[in-house]
Amino acid sequence: MIEQPEDAWRDYRGGPISYDDALETALPKGELQSLLRSLGRVPEGFTPHPRVARQLLGRRAMAEGKRPIDWGTAEALALASLLIEGYGVRLSGQDSERGTFGHRHAVLHDIETGERYVPLAHMAEDQAPFTAINSPLSELAVLGFEYGYSLEQPRNLVIWEAQFGDFANAAQVIIDQFIAASEDKWQQLTGLCLLLPHGFEGAGPEHSSARIERILQLAAKDNLQVLNPTDGAQIFHALRRQMRQTLRKPLIVFTPKGHLQRPAAAVPIDRLAAGGFRPVIEDAGHLDAVQVSLIILCSGKISHELQRERSKSKAGHAAIISVEQLYPFPSEALAAALSLYPQAESIIWVQEEPENMGPWPFVSRKLVAALDPKAWSRLRCVARPESASPAVGSKAVHEYEQQQLLRAAFEQKPI
Protein backbone atom coordinates (compact mmCIF):
# COMPACT_ATOMS: atom_id res chain seq x y z
CA MET A 1 0.00 0.00 0.00
CA ILE A 2 1.30 3.43 -0.98
CA GLU A 3 1.09 5.96 1.83
CA GLN A 4 -1.10 9.03 1.34
CA PRO A 5 -0.85 12.27 3.31
CA GLU A 6 -2.97 11.49 6.35
CA ASP A 7 -4.34 14.97 6.99
CA ALA A 8 -5.13 15.68 3.34
CA TRP A 9 -7.30 12.59 2.94
CA ARG A 10 -8.88 12.47 6.38
CA ASP A 11 -12.27 13.80 5.22
CA TYR A 12 -12.57 11.69 2.06
CA ARG A 13 -13.60 8.11 1.40
CA GLY A 14 -13.56 5.40 -1.22
CA GLY A 15 -15.43 2.12 -1.06
CA PRO A 16 -18.96 1.60 -2.43
CA ILE A 17 -20.27 4.49 -4.50
CA SER A 18 -23.27 6.20 -2.96
CA TYR A 19 -24.46 9.72 -3.64
CA ASP A 20 -25.92 11.89 -0.91
CA ASP A 21 -29.38 13.01 -2.02
CA ALA A 22 -29.02 16.05 0.21
CA LEU A 23 -25.82 17.20 -1.53
CA GLU A 24 -26.36 20.63 -3.07
CA THR A 25 -24.84 21.21 -6.50
CA ALA A 26 -27.29 23.89 -7.62
CA LEU A 27 -26.54 27.58 -7.01
CA PRO A 28 -28.95 30.48 -6.43
CA LYS A 29 -29.85 32.26 -9.64
CA GLY A 30 -28.46 35.56 -8.42
CA GLU A 31 -25.10 33.96 -7.66
CA LEU A 32 -25.00 32.39 -11.12
CA GLN A 33 -25.73 35.77 -12.71
CA SER A 34 -22.94 37.39 -10.71
CA LEU A 35 -20.50 34.69 -11.84
CA LEU A 36 -21.61 35.14 -15.45
CA ARG A 37 -20.91 38.85 -15.31
CA SER A 38 -17.44 38.18 -13.94
CA LEU A 39 -16.77 35.55 -16.61
CA GLY A 40 -17.78 38.05 -19.29
CA ARG A 41 -15.51 40.83 -18.06
CA VAL A 42 -11.96 41.77 -19.14
CA PRO A 43 -9.62 44.49 -17.79
CA GLU A 44 -10.02 47.99 -19.16
CA GLY A 45 -7.99 48.41 -22.34
CA PHE A 46 -7.79 44.65 -23.00
CA THR A 47 -8.60 43.77 -26.63
CA PRO A 48 -9.71 40.15 -27.08
CA HIS A 49 -10.09 38.42 -30.43
CA PRO A 50 -13.47 39.36 -32.01
CA ARG A 51 -14.70 35.77 -31.72
CA VAL A 52 -13.80 35.69 -28.04
CA ALA A 53 -15.39 39.12 -27.55
CA ARG A 54 -18.67 37.69 -28.90
CA GLN A 55 -18.44 34.86 -26.39
CA LEU A 56 -17.92 37.34 -23.54
CA LEU A 57 -20.90 39.38 -24.70
CA GLY A 58 -22.91 36.18 -24.85
CA ARG A 59 -22.11 35.43 -21.22
CA ARG A 60 -23.32 38.85 -20.19
CA ALA A 61 -26.51 38.21 -22.17
CA MET A 62 -26.92 34.91 -20.30
CA ALA A 63 -26.68 36.79 -17.01
CA GLU A 64 -29.56 38.98 -18.18
CA GLY A 65 -31.66 35.97 -19.16
CA LYS A 66 -31.48 36.76 -22.88
CA ARG A 67 -29.71 33.53 -23.83
CA PRO A 68 -29.61 29.98 -22.47
CA ILE A 69 -26.43 28.63 -20.87
CA ASP A 70 -24.25 26.81 -23.41
CA TRP A 71 -21.95 23.90 -22.54
CA GLY A 72 -18.73 25.93 -22.29
CA THR A 73 -20.33 28.53 -20.05
CA ALA A 74 -21.94 25.88 -17.83
CA GLU A 75 -18.52 24.28 -17.40
CA ALA A 76 -16.96 27.67 -16.59
CA LEU A 77 -19.70 28.35 -14.03
CA ALA A 78 -19.00 25.02 -12.32
CA LEU A 79 -15.28 25.77 -12.12
CA ALA A 80 -15.84 29.37 -10.99
CA SER A 81 -18.17 28.32 -8.20
CA LEU A 82 -15.75 25.64 -6.97
CA LEU A 83 -12.88 28.14 -6.94
CA ILE A 84 -14.89 30.54 -4.79
CA GLU A 85 -15.82 27.68 -2.46
CA GLY A 86 -12.13 26.92 -1.92
CA TYR A 87 -11.53 24.02 -4.30
CA GLY A 88 -8.51 24.45 -6.55
CA VAL A 89 -8.86 23.60 -10.24
CA ARG A 90 -6.07 22.28 -12.45
CA LEU A 91 -6.81 21.66 -16.14
CA SER A 92 -4.32 20.25 -18.63
CA GLY A 93 -4.48 18.90 -22.15
CA GLN A 94 -3.15 19.57 -25.62
CA ASP A 95 -5.52 22.47 -26.32
CA SER A 96 -7.25 22.93 -22.99
CA GLU A 97 -6.74 26.69 -22.60
CA ARG A 98 -8.89 27.39 -25.65
CA GLY A 99 -10.72 24.07 -25.85
CA THR A 100 -10.14 22.08 -29.04
CA PHE A 101 -13.61 22.95 -30.31
CA GLY A 102 -13.50 26.62 -29.30
CA HIS A 103 -16.00 26.34 -26.45
CA ARG A 104 -13.81 27.26 -23.47
CA HIS A 105 -11.35 30.16 -24.00
CA ALA A 106 -10.19 29.92 -20.37
CA VAL A 107 -7.06 31.92 -21.24
CA LEU A 108 -7.59 35.13 -23.22
CA HIS A 109 -4.96 36.95 -25.27
CA ASP A 110 -4.90 40.65 -26.10
CA ILE A 111 -4.54 40.75 -29.89
CA GLU A 112 -2.72 44.09 -29.68
CA THR A 113 -0.18 43.39 -26.91
CA GLY A 114 -0.17 39.62 -26.43
CA GLU A 115 -1.05 40.05 -22.75
CA ARG A 116 -2.82 37.08 -21.13
CA TYR A 117 -5.92 37.29 -18.94
CA VAL A 118 -7.56 34.35 -17.16
CA PRO A 119 -11.11 35.22 -15.99
CA LEU A 120 -11.32 32.14 -13.75
CA ALA A 121 -8.26 33.37 -11.83
CA HIS A 122 -10.04 36.65 -10.99
CA MET A 123 -13.40 35.55 -9.59
CA ALA A 124 -12.74 36.65 -5.99
CA GLU A 125 -9.83 37.90 -3.91
CA ASP A 126 -9.76 34.87 -1.62
CA GLN A 127 -10.54 32.20 -4.23
CA ALA A 128 -8.60 28.97 -4.68
CA PRO A 129 -6.00 28.81 -7.49
CA PHE A 130 -6.92 28.02 -11.09
CA THR A 131 -4.36 26.61 -13.52
CA ALA A 132 -4.85 25.84 -17.21
CA ILE A 133 -2.00 24.28 -19.17
CA ASN A 134 -1.60 23.40 -22.84
CA SER A 135 0.40 20.21 -22.45
CA PRO A 136 2.67 18.48 -24.98
CA LEU A 137 1.64 15.61 -27.25
CA SER A 138 2.76 12.99 -24.78
CA GLU A 139 -0.43 11.61 -23.29
CA LEU A 140 1.22 8.85 -21.25
CA ALA A 141 3.55 11.27 -19.46
CA VAL A 142 1.00 14.03 -18.92
CA LEU A 143 -1.78 11.80 -17.64
CA GLY A 144 0.70 10.01 -15.40
CA PHE A 145 1.75 13.35 -13.92
CA GLU A 146 -1.85 14.49 -13.38
CA TYR A 147 -2.68 11.18 -11.71
CA GLY A 148 0.24 11.67 -9.34
CA TYR A 149 -0.78 15.27 -8.66
CA SER A 150 -4.32 14.17 -7.80
CA LEU A 151 -2.98 11.80 -5.13
CA GLU A 152 -1.63 14.76 -3.19
CA GLN A 153 -4.53 17.17 -3.71
CA PRO A 154 -7.97 15.76 -2.82
CA ARG A 155 -9.38 19.31 -2.59
CA ASN A 156 -8.30 20.12 -6.14
CA LEU A 157 -10.37 19.25 -9.18
CA VAL A 158 -7.61 17.81 -11.35
CA ILE A 159 -8.71 17.44 -14.98
CA TRP A 160 -6.91 15.92 -17.95
CA GLU A 161 -8.63 16.58 -21.27
CA ALA A 162 -7.82 14.66 -24.43
CA GLN A 163 -7.74 16.78 -27.56
CA PHE A 164 -9.87 14.04 -29.12
CA GLY A 165 -11.09 11.20 -26.93
CA ASP A 166 -9.13 8.55 -28.78
CA PHE A 167 -5.89 10.34 -27.85
CA ALA A 168 -6.35 8.54 -24.53
CA ASN A 169 -5.22 5.42 -26.42
CA ALA A 170 -1.64 6.62 -25.94
CA ALA A 171 -2.16 6.80 -22.17
CA GLN A 172 -4.14 3.59 -21.75
CA VAL A 173 -1.52 2.02 -19.50
CA ILE A 174 -2.07 4.79 -16.94
CA ILE A 175 -5.83 4.27 -17.10
CA ASP A 176 -5.57 0.47 -16.84
CA GLN A 177 -2.88 0.10 -14.21
CA PHE A 178 -3.41 3.16 -12.05
CA ILE A 179 -6.65 5.10 -12.49
CA ALA A 180 -8.99 2.11 -12.71
CA ALA A 181 -7.21 -0.19 -10.28
CA SER A 182 -5.33 1.86 -7.68
CA GLU A 183 -7.98 1.66 -4.97
CA ASP A 184 -8.38 -2.09 -5.47
CA LYS A 185 -4.62 -2.75 -5.59
CA TRP A 186 -3.28 -0.24 -3.06
CA GLN A 187 -6.31 1.34 -1.34
CA GLN A 188 -5.15 4.57 -2.95
CA LEU A 189 -7.84 7.13 -3.72
CA THR A 190 -7.96 9.67 -6.53
CA GLY A 191 -10.58 12.12 -7.72
CA LEU A 192 -8.89 12.63 -11.11
CA CYS A 193 -11.29 13.68 -13.88
CA LEU A 194 -10.82 12.75 -17.55
CA LEU A 195 -12.69 14.69 -20.25
CA LEU A 196 -12.74 12.59 -23.42
CA PRO A 197 -14.42 14.20 -26.47
CA HIS A 198 -16.56 11.56 -28.16
CA GLY A 199 -19.10 11.46 -30.98
CA PHE A 200 -19.48 10.31 -34.59
CA GLU A 201 -19.53 13.39 -36.83
CA GLY A 202 -17.74 12.27 -39.97
CA ALA A 203 -14.23 13.17 -38.82
CA GLY A 204 -12.85 9.70 -39.51
CA PRO A 205 -11.67 6.73 -37.45
CA GLU A 206 -9.09 8.62 -35.40
CA HIS A 207 -11.34 11.48 -34.28
CA SER A 208 -14.66 9.84 -33.45
CA SER A 209 -14.43 7.34 -30.61
CA ALA A 210 -13.10 7.76 -27.07
CA ARG A 211 -13.49 3.98 -26.74
CA ILE A 212 -16.38 3.89 -24.30
CA GLU A 213 -16.24 0.10 -24.42
CA ARG A 214 -12.70 0.04 -23.01
CA ILE A 215 -13.54 2.27 -20.07
CA LEU A 216 -16.66 0.28 -19.23
CA GLN A 217 -14.71 -2.97 -19.43
CA LEU A 218 -12.56 -1.59 -16.60
CA ALA A 219 -15.57 -0.61 -14.48
CA ALA A 220 -16.12 -2.98 -11.56
CA LYS A 221 -16.50 -2.90 -7.78
CA ASP A 222 -17.46 0.79 -7.85
CA ASN A 223 -14.03 1.88 -9.07
CA LEU A 224 -15.09 4.53 -11.60
CA GLN A 225 -17.76 7.09 -12.36
CA VAL A 226 -18.50 7.09 -16.10
CA LEU A 227 -20.74 9.77 -17.60
CA ASN A 228 -21.97 10.54 -21.11
CA PRO A 229 -23.88 13.79 -20.55
CA THR A 230 -25.93 15.63 -23.13
CA ASP A 231 -26.29 19.25 -21.98
CA GLY A 232 -24.68 22.06 -20.04
CA ALA A 233 -26.65 21.51 -16.84
CA GLN A 234 -25.36 17.95 -16.63
CA ILE A 235 -21.68 18.92 -16.87
CA PHE A 236 -22.26 21.75 -14.36
CA HIS A 237 -23.79 19.47 -11.76
CA ALA A 238 -21.35 16.60 -12.45
CA LEU A 239 -18.23 18.71 -11.88
CA ARG A 240 -19.66 20.29 -8.74
CA ARG A 241 -20.73 16.89 -7.40
CA GLN A 242 -17.25 15.53 -8.00
CA MET A 243 -15.73 17.97 -5.51
CA ARG A 244 -18.53 18.64 -3.02
CA GLN A 245 -19.05 14.97 -2.17
CA THR A 246 -16.75 13.23 0.31
CA LEU A 247 -16.41 10.35 -2.16
CA ARG A 248 -13.19 10.37 -4.18
CA LYS A 249 -13.38 8.23 -7.31
CA PRO A 250 -12.03 8.81 -10.81
CA LEU A 251 -14.54 10.60 -13.03
CA ILE A 252 -14.56 9.77 -16.76
CA VAL A 253 -16.73 12.13 -18.84
CA PHE A 254 -17.39 11.54 -22.52
CA THR A 255 -17.90 15.08 -23.75
CA PRO A 256 -19.39 16.25 -27.06
CA LYS A 257 -17.49 17.93 -29.88
CA GLY A 258 -19.56 19.79 -32.48
CA HIS A 259 -22.53 19.45 -30.14
CA LEU A 260 -20.82 21.84 -27.72
CA GLN A 261 -21.85 24.77 -29.90
CA ARG A 262 -25.35 23.56 -30.77
CA PRO A 263 -28.54 24.90 -29.16
CA ALA A 264 -29.53 21.41 -27.98
CA ALA A 265 -26.69 21.48 -25.42
CA ALA A 266 -27.80 24.85 -24.01
CA VAL A 267 -30.12 25.03 -21.01
CA PRO A 268 -32.11 27.66 -19.12
CA ILE A 269 -30.29 29.08 -16.12
CA ASP A 270 -32.97 27.53 -13.90
CA ARG A 271 -31.50 24.07 -14.62
CA LEU A 272 -28.34 25.20 -12.82
CA ALA A 273 -30.26 26.91 -10.03
CA ALA A 274 -32.18 23.76 -9.04
CA GLY A 275 -31.76 20.01 -8.99
CA GLY A 276 -28.57 18.08 -9.60
CA PHE A 277 -26.97 15.59 -11.96
CA ARG A 278 -29.58 13.30 -13.52
CA PRO A 279 -28.27 9.76 -14.21
CA VAL A 280 -31.25 9.14 -16.48
CA ILE A 281 -33.13 11.80 -18.44
CA GLU A 282 -36.73 10.91 -19.16
CA ASP A 283 -38.45 11.90 -22.37
CA ALA A 284 -39.54 15.54 -22.31
CA GLY A 285 -41.66 15.27 -25.44
CA HIS A 286 -45.05 15.44 -23.67
CA LEU A 287 -46.06 12.07 -25.03
CA ASP A 288 -49.28 10.20 -24.33
CA ALA A 289 -47.78 7.35 -22.28
CA VAL A 290 -50.60 5.00 -23.19
CA GLN A 291 -49.77 5.41 -26.89
CA VAL A 292 -46.07 4.66 -26.49
CA SER A 293 -45.28 1.26 -28.00
CA LEU A 294 -41.52 1.73 -28.45
CA ILE A 295 -38.93 2.76 -25.87
CA ILE A 296 -35.59 3.94 -27.25
CA LEU A 297 -32.69 3.88 -24.81
CA CYS A 298 -29.49 5.70 -25.73
CA SER A 299 -26.57 7.66 -24.33
CA GLY A 300 -24.82 10.82 -25.45
CA LYS A 301 -25.49 13.31 -28.21
CA ILE A 302 -27.38 10.82 -30.38
CA SER A 303 -30.37 11.40 -28.09
CA HIS A 304 -30.77 14.87 -29.64
CA GLU A 305 -30.52 13.45 -33.16
CA LEU A 306 -33.15 10.86 -32.32
CA GLN A 307 -35.44 13.59 -31.04
CA ARG A 308 -35.03 15.54 -34.29
CA GLU A 309 -35.74 12.41 -36.33
CA ARG A 310 -38.82 11.65 -34.24
CA SER A 311 -40.14 15.15 -34.83
CA LYS A 312 -39.46 14.90 -38.56
CA SER A 313 -41.09 11.50 -38.92
CA LYS A 314 -43.91 12.29 -36.45
CA ALA A 315 -43.17 9.09 -34.53
CA GLY A 316 -45.30 9.85 -31.47
CA HIS A 317 -45.31 6.18 -30.52
CA ALA A 318 -41.64 6.27 -29.44
CA ALA A 319 -40.26 7.48 -26.10
CA ILE A 320 -36.56 8.41 -25.91
CA ILE A 321 -34.69 7.90 -22.62
CA SER A 322 -31.09 9.00 -22.21
CA VAL A 323 -28.76 7.08 -19.88
CA GLU A 324 -26.37 9.82 -18.78
CA GLN A 325 -24.46 7.79 -16.19
CA LEU A 326 -23.09 4.54 -17.56
CA TYR A 327 -21.31 3.47 -14.37
CA PRO A 328 -22.40 2.86 -11.71
CA PHE A 329 -25.30 1.79 -13.89
CA PRO A 330 -28.47 3.62 -12.71
CA SER A 331 -30.78 0.60 -12.61
CA GLU A 332 -33.33 2.11 -10.22
CA ALA A 333 -33.62 5.42 -12.07
CA LEU A 334 -33.94 3.60 -15.39
CA ALA A 335 -36.60 1.26 -14.03
CA ALA A 336 -38.59 4.28 -12.85
CA ALA A 337 -38.34 5.86 -16.31
CA LEU A 338 -39.40 2.65 -18.04
CA SER A 339 -42.39 2.26 -15.74
CA LEU A 340 -43.92 5.39 -17.25
CA TYR A 341 -44.72 3.43 -20.42
CA PRO A 342 -46.51 0.24 -19.35
CA GLN A 343 -47.93 -0.41 -22.85
CA ALA A 344 -44.55 -0.43 -24.61
CA GLU A 345 -44.07 -3.52 -26.74
CA SER A 346 -40.43 -3.00 -27.75
CA ILE A 347 -37.30 -1.75 -25.99
CA ILE A 348 -34.21 -0.99 -28.05
CA TRP A 349 -30.78 0.39 -27.33
CA VAL A 350 -29.59 2.81 -30.03
CA GLN A 351 -25.97 3.86 -30.42
CA GLU A 352 -23.95 5.36 -33.26
CA GLU A 353 -20.89 3.21 -32.51
CA PRO A 354 -20.50 -0.24 -34.13
CA GLU A 355 -22.33 -2.97 -32.23
CA ASN A 356 -19.08 -4.44 -30.85
CA MET A 357 -18.06 -1.03 -29.46
CA GLY A 358 -19.67 1.80 -27.50
CA PRO A 359 -21.86 1.16 -24.45
CA TRP A 360 -23.84 -1.82 -25.79
CA PRO A 361 -21.48 -4.70 -24.82
CA PHE A 362 -21.63 -3.42 -21.23
CA VAL A 363 -25.19 -2.10 -20.92
CA SER A 364 -26.72 -5.18 -22.52
CA ARG A 365 -25.82 -7.17 -19.40
CA LYS A 366 -26.95 -4.40 -17.09
CA LEU A 367 -30.26 -4.02 -18.91
CA VAL A 368 -31.02 -7.71 -18.65
CA ALA A 369 -30.43 -7.47 -14.90
CA ALA A 370 -32.56 -4.32 -14.59
CA LEU A 371 -35.51 -5.38 -16.76
CA ASP A 372 -38.36 -7.65 -15.84
CA PRO A 373 -37.60 -11.10 -17.33
CA LYS A 374 -40.74 -10.75 -19.47
CA ALA A 375 -39.06 -7.82 -21.25
CA TRP A 376 -35.84 -9.63 -22.19
CA SER A 377 -37.20 -10.89 -25.51
CA ARG A 378 -38.19 -7.32 -26.43
CA LEU A 379 -34.67 -5.92 -25.95
CA ARG A 380 -32.32 -5.49 -28.88
CA CYS A 381 -29.68 -3.12 -30.24
CA VAL A 382 -29.77 -0.80 -33.24
CA ALA A 383 -26.20 0.18 -34.15
CA ARG A 384 -23.70 0.19 -36.96
CA PRO A 385 -22.61 -3.36 -37.86
CA GLU A 386 -19.63 -4.85 -36.07
CA SER A 387 -16.40 -3.31 -37.30
CA ALA A 388 -12.64 -3.43 -36.77
CA SER A 389 -12.41 0.35 -37.26
CA PRO A 390 -14.30 2.78 -35.00
CA ALA A 391 -15.67 4.80 -37.94
CA VAL A 392 -15.54 5.23 -41.71
CA GLY A 393 -13.13 7.66 -43.34
CA SER A 394 -15.61 9.40 -45.64
CA LYS A 395 -17.86 12.14 -44.28
CA ALA A 396 -20.43 11.41 -46.99
CA VAL A 397 -20.54 7.72 -46.04
CA HIS A 398 -20.80 8.67 -42.37
CA GLU A 399 -23.77 10.95 -43.01
CA TYR A 400 -25.52 8.24 -45.05
CA GLU A 401 -24.91 5.69 -42.28
CA GLN A 402 -26.11 8.07 -39.59
CA GLN A 403 -29.36 8.77 -41.39
CA GLN A 404 -29.94 5.06 -41.96
CA LEU A 405 -29.28 4.45 -38.27
CA LEU A 406 -31.82 7.06 -37.16
CA ARG A 407 -34.47 5.70 -39.49
CA ALA A 408 -33.81 2.14 -38.38
CA ALA A 409 -34.37 3.14 -34.76
CA PHE A 410 -37.98 4.08 -35.42
CA GLU A 411 -38.65 1.41 -38.02
CA GLN A 412 -37.06 -1.21 -35.73
CA LYS A 413 -35.02 -2.88 -38.44
CA PRO A 414 -31.28 -3.45 -39.00
CA ILE A 415 -29.28 -0.84 -40.90
Top keywords for this entry?
single chain; 415 residues; alpha/beta; Rossmann fold; seven-stranded mixed sheet; five-stranded mixed sheet; 34% helix
Walk me through this protein's architecture.
It is a single chain. The protein has 14 helices and 14 strands. The chain has 415 residues and is an alpha/beta fold. It folds into two domains: 6-273, Rossmann fold, CATH 3.40.50.12470; 280-411, 3-Layer(aba) Sandwich (Rossmann fold). Strand 2 (108-109) and strand 3 form a beta hairpin. It is globular, with a radius of gyration of 21 Å. It starts with 5 loop residues before the first helix and ends with a helix. The mean pLDDT is 94.
The count of strands amounts to 14
Strands of the widest sheet, in order across it, are 4-1-5-6-8-7-12
- End-to-end C-alpha gap: 50 Å
Give the tally of structural domains.
2
Output mean pLDDT: 94
| CATH-defined topology of the largest domain | Rossmann fold
Indicate the low-confidence ranges by residue numbers. Answer: none
Sketch the major β-sheet.
7 strands, mixed
